[in-house]
Amino acid sequence: MDLDAELDRARDLDVSELADAIESIGFECTRCGACCKGYEGDDGPEPHTATVFPDEVRALQEAGGATDPDGDGTGGDDSNDESGTPMEWRDVARPMPYGLVEGDDGPEGETFEWALQTSACGDCRFYEEDDEGQGACRVHEDRPLICETYPFSVALGGTSQPMGEAVDEEGVVRAHECEGLGRDISREDAEELARALKERAVRELREARGVTEAYEPVETGPGEVVVHDSEGAKRPDGTRVQ
């Protein structure tokens, strides 16, 4: 796959055409929380899995520290308290499980992405619900692009594998299963979503190219995990592998 060519295609995406596709099907978030929670898979409970870029992890470290100053997942008295200590890397992100194997001492091997960290129940650690079951994100303003653009994705080589149905005739825009689809959306909101969708496609391809360029195999021992991202090889706590 020529990632440079795909990156050029992503950069050439027309925001207006992406917005047309989004507007044609319509979308409004119902705050059901389905995209933020773990689910029951064929082999049992599956945790929430959403890709996050390295710089997004760092942004969430700062944002999460402000909303969760104790670092215990319970939030704080003042969500705008900027004096909160930044969260640890592993409190925000975890190694993407795909590609890892289960050894005697736990998961081990090499993987090539980070996923948002989850709580004990498998939900995104930043997800919470009110007494009426309405979902909310504690770091909504700093949420990753994959969250900002859900349930839509762009089907280009090197981007996240599309799992939904094509929305446009070219099959570039895909819509994943979501109860918010089919609801009215304003042109302004459709264009805002389209811009984020284009940015995500570009970022995914830049990250994929960076991973390819930076990759050097690392021998892992029992219970050891290495994550290769565009910045190089890292341990699960985000520190570099020397």
From TrEMBL:
Pfam families under this entry?
CxxCxxCC
User: Which stretches are tagged as biased composition: Basic and acidic residues?
Assistant: 226-242
- The segments labelled Disordered in the record are 63-110, 213-242
PANTHER family found in the cross-reference section: PUTATIVE-RELATED (PTHR35866), YKGJ FAMILY CYSTEINE CLUSTER PROTEIN (PTHR35866:SF2)
Name the chain's protein: Fe-S oxidoreductase
Q: Which organism is it from?
A: Haloferax gibbonsii (strain ATCC 33959 / DSM 4427 / JCM 8863 / NBRC 102184 / NCIMB 2188 / Ma 2.38)
